[in-house]
Amino acid sequence: MDKKSLVSDIIRLEWEMFTTTRNAGGRASCQDDKTTFEIMRGAQHEVWSLDTLISYRNDLEQAKQQEINLVAIKYARMMKLTFPDEYERIEHLLPPVTENAGRLADEISKRHTDRSLAAAREYPKLISMGRPVTTESSRAGHWAAMDNYLHSELLTYSEATLELCLRDTLRYESRGVNMALLILENTAVRYGYPSLDALEAALP
Predict the structure, then answer these.
(1) What value does the CA radius of gyration of the chain take, rounded to a whole number of Å?
(2) Are 59 and 158 within 8 A, CB to CB?
(3) What residues make up the domain containing 142?
(4) Fewer CB atoms < 10 Å away: N or C end of the chain?
(5) What is the Cα–Cα distance from 7 to 29, expressed in whole angstroms?
(6) What pLDDT tens digit does each residue of the chain (204 aa) get?
(7) pTM of this prediction?
């Protein structure tokens, strides 16, 4: 299967989980914005290798068969930093994370956060429009930063997928390629801009 088809399958499965996730404060408007969801998730998934995408799609398909909502679990795990008191009350309901999976998620998240900080220095206007890069620099305690968002998502992946994610990450690094910039470039193109520089220049 080609990458475009794999990414399409993954987004379809993720959207089913995302749009049906229940929020304590009621349904969020973004849960009805499929277009933006497809742009943002597609831009991210396109940077991964075919092996990684196949493995992650398998994770999603298996979760669907078992009626497990991985997106809901991701948002629940984010609460560990944004709403720690509430998280303590639901932590026992979440699937356990193995020591190896936790280690892999930590390493991948750290490497990607470092690249995101570098990207923020090159494209400050674009980065400032989204989540803060790190929890430490978060503008408000309940605003989930990129590092928390990514780490929480990684903890929903299987160990096999995490191993492949780390392999891809290290391969990009060995070539001197910033994955965060690749994701931003994909995002710019999906929004109709010829380049990331063009998008940054168009922002006020």
Answers:
(1) 17
(2) yes
(3) 3-202
(4) C
(5) 24
(6) 799 999 999 999 999 999 999 876 677 778 889 999 999 999 999 999 999 999 999 999 999 999 999 999 999 999 999 889 999 999 999 999 999 999 999 999 999 999 999 999 999 999 888 888 888 766 555 568 899 999 999 999 999 999 999 999 999 999 999 999 999 999 999 999 999 999 999 998
(7) 0.92
